[in-house]
Design brief:
The chain is an alpha/beta fold and 283 residues long. The protein folds into two domains: 160 residues, P-loop containing nucleotide triphosphate hydrolases (Rossmann fold), CATH 3.40.50.300; 114 residues. The protein contains 13 helices and five strands. About 4% of the residues have low confidence.
């Protein structure tokens, strides 16, 4: 089934990392669509996989689940869309009441499309759901970009991005510069002024840099090697395993989310350097 979304390399790899061969899932995910026109179809495929993964392809139960999801009739899967451009508290309360009883399936899933349309009451309700998650209930917040959501929601979710087949050939010089400075912890701190002047200029530029870096690691994860268009970066990814790359992505993602808070930027940068290099040098 997941073969249908394999062309979305980054998203496909993230789905495997988060949902394949796992008995339990995290309680909440954000899916960044970047305005992907097929996002609803791709999400339906993911939900089908969550509910049918323990069944043989083409088995009767597998077909039953997929058919019901296609018809929006699968009881344990609820889609929520804005009404008059707003998602209201009442829509979320309906789902909560619907999922009060335990499912015969192992999970119950609700997906909020255009989650940036949550009004203040709905946002407060969602935060309560996230702070006190019910066993087996999984939430997905679908949004063009995660930063359109409240920081308090972002911090409680895992992130899945739907960008596909990103090429970094035009950005290699920036990344090569980054990796040269980050060749060791000592070198990173010796070049601290250069970092501030040329790479980590301010929060906005830093987020753009971290996005670029994160996507480059995802590109490596998806391809398991450096392609011909990325020869300039080859030495920085030699002998890097997929598991190691995933750990580094996790550090980048966690540290990036902190920038949305009112943090002291220099203290943040010190912390980022240490955490990034700890993972890089110990994986």
């Amino acid at each position: 089934m997941l073969e249908e979304i394999k062309k979305y390399n980054n998203f496909y790899q993230q789905v495997l990392a988060n949902f394949s061969n796992k008995a339990n899932f995290f309680h909440a995910y954000i899916i960044e669509t970047y305005d992907n026109e097929e996002s609803e179809k791709i999400i339906d495929i993911l939900i089908k996989y969550i509910f049918s993964r323990k069944y043989e392809n083409n088995s009767l139960e597998y077909k039953r689940i997929c058919t019901l999801i296609d018809k929006n009739s699968f009881y344990d899967y609820q889609k929520i869309f804005p009404e008059n451009n707003v998602i209201k508290k009442e829509q979320l309360t309906f789902v909560k009441n619907k999922f009060k009883n335990k499912s015969f399936n192992s999970n119950q899933v609700y997906v909020i499309f255009d989650a940036d349309k949550l009004n203040s009451h709905a946002s407060n309700t969602i935060l309560k759901f996230l702070e006190e998650p019910n066993d087996g209930v999984i939430a997905f917040f679908v949004v063009k970009n995660r930063y359109m959501l409240l920081d308090t929601i972002i911090s409680r979710c895992q992130i899945l991005t739907m960008d596909q087949n990103i090429s970094f050939s035009s950005d290699n010089s920036t990344l090569v510069h980054f990796f040269k400075i980050f060749s060791s912890l000592k070198n990173a701190f010796l070049n601290y002024d250069l970092l501030m002047k040329e790479l980590f200029i301010d929060k906005k530029v830093t987020i753009e840099l971290l996005d670029l870096l994160e996507k480059r690691y995802y590109d490596y994860i998806c391809n398991s090697c450096i392609t011909d268009t990325n020869k300039d970066l080859e030495e920085y990814f030699n002998n890097l395993s997929i598991k190691q790359a995933l750990k580094i992505v996790n550090v980048i993602d966690n540290e990036k989310s902190k920038l949305n808070y009112n943090v002291n930027f220099k203290i943040w940068l010190d912390n980022f350097i240490i955490k990034f290099m700890e993972v890089k040098e110990n994986v």
